[in-house]
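Troubleshooting log. The previous structure file for this entry was overwritten by mistake, so regenerating from the original sequence record. Sequence copied from the archived sheet and checked twice against the printout by T.R.
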Amino acid sequence: MSVTIKSQREIELMREAGRILYEVHEGLRKELKPGMSTWQIDKLGEEMIRSYGCEPSFLNYNGYPASICVSVNDEVVHGIPSKDRIIGEGDIVSLDAGVIYKGYHSDAARTYGIGEVSAEAQKLMEVTKQSFFEGIKYAREGNHLHDISAAIGNYARQFGYGVVEDLVGHGIGQHLHEDPNIPNFPQRRRGVKLQAGMTLAVEPMINIGRPDVCWLDDDWTVVTEDGTLSAHYENTILITKGEPEILTLR
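Regenerated output below.
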């Protein structure tokens, strides 16, 4: 496994990629409403990404046909946008997006409630987001990668939630997916030692029910096996000499 350490110049490019992606997510958040198709969300997202002079990281990545992964309710990740898929009041919608700025990627995901959502859906979204922040308390030089993994999983599991194990976070930089893989649950081994200059995409995927997932026939969309709700929260982070820097938040 070779985890890339980014130079100061590379870090500056990734900061800008992260800043732009933050703005794209904010723009999409303001537009979400009942009656939209997931295709409309994707088109809006792609237009926003290109308006910053960036390319969408996901479009045609391993054949993925869209710029924004739009996953609704029991869809965990990689939902393919469709003109026929209409979001409605009470749905929860996960948006996963990436941008390429001058050859460098950023990657971030958010889950939003559409209109009034159930208390259980609201709690799932809040716990998923907080599990990310519990994890990155350990994202410091000298700690080990799986300190992050354990903190995410242990936090989410105390609410009785299923932590998805079939999908993981990843390193990021000139490639969308780089070493190392970043599980969201405790590991037997400690994982690589964290060093300043590492850039990581940390992304808890948490189910209200069991952790088990399956792939639909489109070979992309991942759903909960038991049909329960799932939430996703992700940011691209930079390991520093002190606190981690979240590149896709302001």
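The chain has four helices and 15 strands. Archived copy saved in two places this time.
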